[in-house]
Amino acid sequence: MSGKIINLTNETFDEIVLKSDKPVVVDFWATWCGPCRMVGPIMDELAEDFDGKVQIAKVNVDDQGELAAKFKIMSIPTILTFKNGELAEKVVGVRSKEEFSDMINKLL
């Protein structure tokens, strides 16, 4: 995982995501999830590509069940985007890097 990606917890979510002055992309995942392992490297690349413009973060649903429940995460991977502290978009499942990039560009 890229050093530019933040691991979120219930305690850090509001400060890092909702109070951020930049758009935030949050990847809800788990270690046992095959599709999540496909999305992980894409998130690493996006963290590099959008460094300084967008914050990429991850939530391990096994460790942070309360956050997963708060956002009604029923399937993983689920990617949520936030802008100005508001949920902007929700995508469930694997997408290409280009599709994720387009999603992020809409936030900028």
UniProtKB/TrEMBL annotation:
Keywords in alphabetical order: Disulfide bond, Electron transport, Redox-active center, Transport
Organism: Ruminiclostridium herbifermentans
Lineage: Bacteria, Bacillati, Bacillota, Clostridia, Eubacteriales
Site (Deprotonates C-terminal active site Cys): residue numbering on this chain: D27
Family: Belongs to the thioredoxin family.
Protein name from the UniProt record: Thioredoxin
Electron transport as UniProt keyword: yes
Disulphides: C33-C36
Active site per database record: C33 (nucleophile), C36 (nucleophile)
Any one GO molecular-function label of the UniProt entry: protein-disulfide reductase activity
Matching InterPro entries: Thioredoxin (IPR005746), Thioredoxin-like_sf (IPR036249), Thioredoxin_CS (IPR017937), Thioredoxin_domain (IPR013766)
Any Gene Ontology CC annotation: cytoplasm
UniProt entry tagged with the keyword Transport: yes
Positions bearing the site annotation: Contributes to redox potential value: G34, P35
Family annotation (CDD domains): TRX_family (cd02947)
Superkingdom of origin: Bacteria
Family annotation (PROSITE patterns): THIOREDOXIN_1, THIOREDOXIN_2
